[in-house]
Amino acid sequence: MNNQHALSFEPDSRLVADLVASPNRGSRNRGLRPSLLILHYTGMASAAKAIDWLARPESKVSCHYVIDVDGRITQMVREIDRAWHAGVSYWAGECDINSASIGIEIQNPGHADGYHAFPRSQMRAVRDLAGDIAGRHTIAPEHILAHSDVAPLRKIDPGEKFDWRWLAHEGVGHWVPPVPVRAADAALEGATASNAARAMLTAYGYGVGIAGASGPEFATVIAAFQRHFRPARVDGVLDHSTLATLEHLLNALARGVVLQ
Ligand SMILES: [Zn+2]
Fold first, then answer.
1. 132/197 same-domain check
2. What is the pLDDT of residue 186?
């Protein structure tokens, strides 16, 4: 870093209540502009603790925004700058997700410490801020993603209790009703199903190539897809519901692309 963030940099959104500058930032590489919006949970006991940590140089992590449980929004890095929230990650050919994205940390203690549903007051703030950012940067609905989507082998946030369905109904993100899980659904065996899943996950943007077509890593990518798009059962098993939901999702996206 060659200079300190001004203590009172101008917020990028009128929705921002507080500014707490983080030194953990830089310039976006290759002149990239934000085309992805990545949603996280903090995995900490409180938003105050998360903000304190994200503002410390030794943490080497940051994000653009933190949203508390009551919906209060803190900005920590200017949108023009590259925040350090995604780590090693991939989406649709892009490996430098931090340079290509804006990151929002949503307060929730996370799976290791009492993971709970996200309160509606908090979800409204997510909706408002995500909609505001997507509108100003022309971020496509299908580019509003979970950290677990872009780093499926390392991350599970914001997790299966994050209400992507509600968010999509409110006009934010890309989502289709999942094909219901039936009690009799079993794993789809054979290369045909796994190859179809692999091709469709790749077409949607997931980094399946690095995970291989079978084995535990492929199951982890399947689980990441389920966590976002079929949260009723997150088990990493490629079943009919998962494959059909993926197909519907891709079909919905293709129609959207054709209409442009
Ligand atoms: Zn995260």
1. no
2. 81
